[in-house]
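Subject: Protein entry, chain in single-letter code together with its fold tokens

Area: Proteins and the way their chains fold up in space.

Attached in line: The record itself begins immediately under this heading.
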Amino acid sequence: MLQLRPILFSIGLMLCTIAAAMLLPALVDLADDQDVWKTFVASSVVTFFAGGLLVLFAYDENPPRMGVKEGFLLTTSAWLVIASFAALPFLGHGLDYTDAYFEAMSGLTTTGATVMSGLDKLPRGILLWRALLCGIGGLGIIVIAILMLPFLRVGGMQLFQMESSDKSEKVLPRAFELTLAIAAVFVGLVLVCAFLYTWFGMTGFDAICHALTTVATGGFANYDSSFAHFESHAIHWTAIVFMILGAMPFVVFIRTLRGDRTAAWKDVQVRAFVGFLISVSLIMALWLLFTRNISFFDALTLSSFNVTSIVTTTGYMSDDYTRWGNFAVGVFFLLTFVGGCSGSTSGAIKIYRLQIAHMLTRSHFLHLISPSRVVTLTYNGRRLPADVPFSVVAFLAIYFAVVGLFAVIYAGLGLDFVTSLSASATALGNVGPGLGEIVGPAGNFVPIPDTAKWALSFQMMLGRLELFTVLVLFRPEFWRS
């Protein structure tokens, strides 16, 4: 039987945490003598009241243990409910609830798409709130990906199951310890990133905000021009490094800190991820070198920053890459689908699924050439579980089907084809910028209909829930199991 009390209790605790976080930007605005601090305090009170009611209602001295069904429902409903309350502070800054919800969902899912303009002139409190949403969402995404999704058998995530009967798969013996370790690594990366940003010329406030959104691969910036506002190459290369670190498996960091110095190098998806970034960045640097009158180092910096930003689904920009030529536009559209590693803050398809898809394609051709040949599929030195190939193929099929379906929906709402397709791809991949004047790196989501914004918000959530965890909820067989 489905247990609702632990789900309500967990959501209540999350809301109380969000309410406490709202007080930080309130203090910043109060220190700046900005009256908008009252908006944050009022939002905090409302959120804490709602969360407290859920906690009191669902509290049980001997709470029932949550199973797979409860896990599915919690991971889905938590995004919807938290975004609903996280949107409240935006209402005091001139946004209607549709735009406020879109902005909150974009931050929590670390997508980085925004409906807000004039960021350079906004109060510091609202800028900090946007960054905090990315930080909170990024950390929550990692925890869900590592602790929950492997058990839900979602698109090959069972490869990274941390608490199975196989003791060798355990990084740490208990899920609570693993969660604390992940949080410690996340906070450590944010602090180091903020220190380096400050060292290379950012203000302390900008450094904190951008460190949160860099490590969380969230992409919210404090300026309309994003990272083009900062002219320092050192700042751009710092962002490149920490975007890459944010898109790597956090379990690898934990293993490294516990003495396994070669953990990252031994992980085949990390090697493939870094190799892919280097290769594409060099190709685009050469393209810029031959098409624009700039030095090789400038070309390499521009290409590495923007390629890394899109592949890691961060969404920063240091230049409008849609003006680099048709070749560049095609490359960046394809990069929208790639993503980083499993167990990271990045979104999209992710490297390991592409690796497995390549293995399946290769084995199929080998079987066609030699039908009697037995091909054993292995990943990271271990044989693939029997259900992983089907899960990955199913995930890819559903992923592209959802991109196409929502592209048609956006076109039906009046958006042009390029905007519809790229908006659908970037929303589902949690990338942020797309192509075209409206959702491109130099545009924003303001001109689109409210219906499209709600659809985009739903797509962003789907992307963060590994897409078809939500679809499973609508299968009667799941609830009868």
The mean pLDDT is 83.
